[in-house]
Design a protein that fits this description.
36% strand, alpha+beta, 9 strands, 202 residues, 4 helices, 5-stranded antiparallel sheet, 4-stranded antiparallel sheet
Length: 202
């Protein structure tokens, strides 16, 4: 379950000598609030500023569209314009950018590593393979003889690559006993096409 919503944070308070339309007192507090969206209470981005005025005498509170024109133009609008949005309200976006950047870097490193492993397969390597009907299974290298790679194919398939973790947990008994043969170049072509999505080498 994702908890999300919006909140407001008071940014500034300023006192004005503007006359209160209700009681005539010349002591008005102006408040500026920043609204922001949050996910799990982490601020993601600000989206609007708003404010109110409050008379220190009669305590009448007026929203922006209820304020006298003189109070709005001479005090409220100017205060709102010069009040900066806090940087911390972009925290969620910053974390999201860092997460995406980290994932891209990790993915690039994995691809570079796998590009080297596919050129020199070893006994025990486990290839995560996407089949022609868009299922996923495992090939386990049994032996390498020159340019020929001998491997076992797992008896199980899954329709999502994330399901391969469960197949791996079934252990060696989940592989067929029959040995299949493929040239190194064929494996390299499968990798280049994206049919070998990952290589696990202990």
């Amino acid at each position: 379950m994702i908890i999300y919503g919006s909140r407001s944070k008071q940014l500034v308070k300023e006192t004005s000598i503007e006359k209160c339309a209700h009681c005539g007192n010349r002591n008005m507090d102006i408040y500026i609030f920043q609204k922001y969206a949050h996910i799990f209470w982490i601020p993601f981005f600000p989206f609007s500023k708003t404010g109110v005025s409050q008379c220190n005498n009669c305590k009448q509170v007026l929203k922006q569209n209820e304020m006298p024109a003189s109070l709005q133009k001479e005090t409220y609008d100017i205060l709102k314009l010069k009040t900066a949005t806090p940087v911390w309200m972009f925290s969620g976006l910053a974390l999201l950018v860092l997460l995406i950047t980290s994932m891209v870097i990790d993915s690039n490193k994995k691809n570079e590593r796998n590009a080297l492993l596919i050129l020199a397969p070893q006994s025990g390597d486990v290839f995560e393979v996407r089949t022609k009907d868009n299922q996923y299974t495992l090939f386990k290298v049994d032996d390498v003889q020159g340019d020929t790679v001998l491997f076992f194919i797992n008896d199980f398939q899954t329709n999502k690559s994330s399901g391969l973790r469960d197949i791996k947990e079934k252990g060696d008994n989940a592989y067929a006993k029959e040995t299949y043969v493929m040239a190194r170049q064929e494996l390299k072509e499968m990798f280049d096409k994206g049919d070998i999505v990952d290589i696990d080498r202990k």
